[in-house]
Design a protein that fits this description.
Layout: H1 5-13, H2 26-36, E1 41-46, H3 51-62, E2 66-72, H4 74-84, E3 93-95, H5 99-111, E4 117-120, H6 125-133, E5 146-152, E6 160-163, H7 173-189, E7 196-200, H8 211-224, E8 232-237, H9 239-243, H10 245-250, E9 263-265, H11 269-283, E10 286-292, E11 298-299, H12 307-326
Parallel strand pairs: 1-2, 1-4, 2-3, 4-11, 6-9, 7-8, 7-9
Antiparallel strand pairs: 5-6, 5-10, 10-11
Helix pairs in contact: 2-12, 3-12, 5-6
């Protein structure tokens, strides 16, 4: 019998836990510890009008990761704080009328150099990103804006960066140059010592009938020519031979990336979103999320994210902000 809507929701909320691992969240704990050695960054928290977004921001403050500025309707934020038993009286609060106004005012704080990062609260991603990319009042740079998931997959040796699974729907080859470079910059900021980028497709050979394989080959040649810097690239690679040494050996792929990739560049948003959610729901992975390419990092979380993933997202933003200061 088919499950009703409420039953399906309950089944999803109570899905069987992933296999136990003594290393669960270990990679995120390393990121949080690294960020805690830095001064907390000032973060404009956009419209934190539900318990998940407000609690995440307050917990990140408690751990010394961020100094939040709450941006939203005061009565709604206070009501959430009261329900949670949280005292927010000492926090700066910028009043707004509604979610679009919250996004515009949070972006204005960045333009005024009063915030070093943005954090999405209980509003749609499109509302935040619309304010970020606004022609006259936004915070775009010459870089293409892109999103990265930093996946903590239990029992996998490295954190996996997946890009782009949330912003660029069908990126062109030109878009992918920035998408790859943004991911490399992120990998460097979070301290990956050897950045190995796999340009994913459905196969590991160049096939003129599969455009993603041609784009993968072009991106690798761009890296050879110094148009993309800071990492070793290889592609096209299928997912199995990008992350599994045995799969790479079976296909006789000799590459410093094959079997060792820690950055996975997907062909498009749909494939990336499916990959990230498959890891989350089938492999018990957590997925921290951040948007890069704007003037400041943007912490992009969803209601489904665990608290460790939210805190890891804040830690990643802190590490990115520190990298920008050093640049």
């Amino acid at each position: 019998m088919a499950l009703g809507r409420a039953s399906r929701h309950a089944a999803g909320m109570n899905r069987a836990p992933p296999p136990a691992s003594e290393h669960r969240h270990e990679k995120y704990q390393h990121l949080i510890a690294a960020a805690q050695r830095l001064p907390p960054i000032t973060v404009a928290v956009v419209h934190p009008c539900d318990d998940v977004s407000l609690h995440g921001a307050i917990e990140a403050q408690r751990l010394g990761l961020i100094a939040p500025i709450l941006v939203g309707p005061p009565a709604r934020i206070q009501g959430v704080a009261d329900a949670l038993g949280i005292d927010i009286s000492a926090l700066p609060l910028i009043a707004s009328l509604h979610s679009h106004d919250s996004a515009a005012k949070a972006v204005a704080l960045v333009r005024q150099a009063k915030a070093q990062a943005l954090m999405k609260g209980s509003l749609h991603t499109d509302e935040v990103m619309g304010a970020v990319v606004a022609h006259d009042t936004g915070i775009r740079t010459e870089r293409r804006i892109s999103h990265c998931f930093i996946m903590d997959v239990p029992d996998h040796r490295d954190p996996l960066i997946i890009t782009d699974a949330a912003v660029n729907i069908a990126p062109t080859l030109e878009d992918k140059i920035d998408i790859v470079q943004n991911a490399i910059d992120l990998a460097r900021a979070i301290g990956l010592p050897d950045i190995r980028v796999a340009i994913l497709s459905a196969m590991e050979t160049v096939n003129p009938k599969v455009p993603s394989t041609i784009e993968a080959a072009a991106l690798c040649k761009m890296a050879d020519r110094g148009q993309i810097t800071g990492a070793t690239l290889d592609g096209p690679l299928a997912l199995d031979n990008a992350i599994d040494l045995d799969a790479a050996a079976i296909k006789h792929i000799v590459s410093p990336v094959a079997g060792h990739a820690n950055v996975l560049v997907v062909p498009d948003l749909v494939s990336g979103n499916i990959l990230a959610k498959s890891l989350s729901f089938l492999a018990g992975a957590d997925s921290a999320g951040i948007v890069l390419g704007a003037q400041v990092p943007i912490i992009l979380t969803s209601r489904a994210d665990s608290l460790p993933a939210r805190l890891a997202s804040c830690a990643v933003a802190s590490l990115m902000a520190a990298a920008k200061r050093r640049a």
